[in-house]
Amino acid sequence: MLRADRVSLRVGEFDLRDISLEIAPSEYFVLMGPTGSGKSLFVKSICGLMRPDRGYIFIDGQNITDLEPRYRNIGYVPQHCALFPHMTVAKNITFALRLKGIRHATALEQLAALIEPLGLRPLLGRSVTNLSGGERQKVAVARALAVEPKLLVLDEPVSALDEPTRHEVCLELRTLQRSLHIPTIHICHSVVEARLVSDRVGVFVKGRLAQTGDLDTLTAHPANDAVARLLNVSTNHRNPS
Hints:
This protein has two domains: 1-73 and 152-241, P-loop containing nucleotide triphosphate hydrolases (Rossmann fold); 84-148, no CATH class. The protein is an alpha/beta fold. The chain is built from nine helices and ten strands. The chain starts with a strand and ends in an 11-residue tail after the last helix. A six-stranded mixed beta sheet has the order 6-7-8-3-9-10, sandwiched between helices. The radius of gyration is 18 Å and the shape is globular.
């Protein structure tokens, strides 16, 4: 389980302010919000890539606020995958296990439960530079999950893909997440995408977490005009203030 307690971070003129959030074990949580609303800053704070000015972050009850990224046991997939271009698909996926001294062949055997559902078996010998966008995303997800992280963070994982591929990859992500029961944070801008994968959604507006809930509740009762615009719903459905 992830718990963020009043996390705040100032970068230049932008303030990420008092973000408190709990994500349950096995929950698929989607973060939405306009560009520059603070979504990526928040997940970078969780992953240890930026340190909050105030507040605390806990995973499974452990305070990880001051831990280096490598000690947080978080699987992070950045927006552009960041695969190793000089390695094959197989070596990308097994990279973290090989660093631990596990032989490549043994690592592949251990990771069969990731490789098969994502359809990566036929691609293992290929260079990642010769893959489609959707295939690269699947490799990045498999690499992030290879270390059995306590939390998976996906920063706009399908934003660069065409619509049919986005739909396919989202369904595969959701199926895999359900089978592994790993809490997941997924950043996106699309209501359609959020509906494909999410248990709950959190909406960021100008550095604040404006509203959380399941998508049906948010679209029926958006907290304010900014949330309503993001979800493409009429402001007539707003919660009474």
